[in-house]
C-alpha cells in the first residue's frame, strides 16, 4: 500500500519523507490556499518545491472545468516534473481530459469521486489513480469504506490498472480499514501516518528494555 500525504505544507511533507515511508503527495486548491499559496506563479513554484522534497508522485489539480482549459493547464503542470500527476475533477470534461492524458502517457488522478459508477468511468478513461473521498462520505452518514470495497471489486473483476487512492482519510483507522480492503494507496494528513506508530505497550516495553540494559551495565 502506497502512503501519500494530503497537504501542501512543506514541513509536514519533509517530516513524512524523513520517516522513510512516503510514496507521494496529493494537493488540492483548498490545501494550497490553507498554506497561503496563491497566484499561478507561486503555485507552480510550490509544486516544484514539493517535487524536490519527495521522490514519488505529486498530484497537481487543474482549476479549469472545460476540456481545453484542463488540457492546457495539465500539460503545463506535467511539464514541470515527471513526478507530477495531473489531478482532474470527475465531470464529463475531466473524463475526456483523463483519456487525452492517458493516451499521451501522462499520469492522472481523477478526484472528487463519490460513487462506484464514477470510479468505473475514471478507469475506462485510463486514470492512473482514482480518488474516492471516504471521509466526506462518512461526514454525511454514508459508509465511505463501502465505496472503497465496491471499487476494489469492480476493478478486480475487469483487471483495471487504475489504482484506488483512498482520499479524504481522516484518521489511522481509515488507513487500516483501507489496507484491509485492498486500497492501492491512501492519502491523509500527517497524523494519519504518524498515528500508526503509537501503542502504549511499545512505549512501556522500550522503557523496560532500556531500564534493564542500564541495570545490567551499571
Ligand atoms: C484528495 O486528494 C483530497 O485532497 C483530500 O483527500 C480531501 O480531503 P478532505 O475531505 O479532508 O478535504
TrEMBL record:
CDD domains noted in UniProt: Transaldolase_FSA
Domain of life: Bacteria
GO molecular function, one term: aldehyde-lyase activity
InterPro entries in alphabetical order: Aldolase_TIM (IPR013785), TAL/FSA (IPR001585), Transaldolase_3B (IPR022999), Transaldolase_3B/F6P_aldolase (IPR004731), Transaldolase_AS (IPR018225), TSA/FSA_arc/bac (IPR033919)
UniProt subcellular location: Cytoplasm
Keywords: Cytoplasm, Pentose shunt, Schiff base, Transferase
Enzyme Commission number(s) from the entry: 2.2.1.2
Catalytic residues as annotated in Swiss-Prot or TrEMBL: 87
Reactions mediated catalytically: D-sedoheptulose 7-phosphate + D-glyceraldehyde 3-phosphate = D-erythrose 4-phosphate + beta-D-fructose 6-phosphate
Enzyme class, first EC level, given as a word: transferase
Gene Ontology CC annotation, any one: cytoplasm
N-terminal signal peptide: none
Function in brief: Transaldolase is important for the balance of metabolites in the pentose-phosphate pathway.
Family: Belongs to the transaldolase family. Type 3B subfamily.
Listed name of the protein: Probable transaldolase
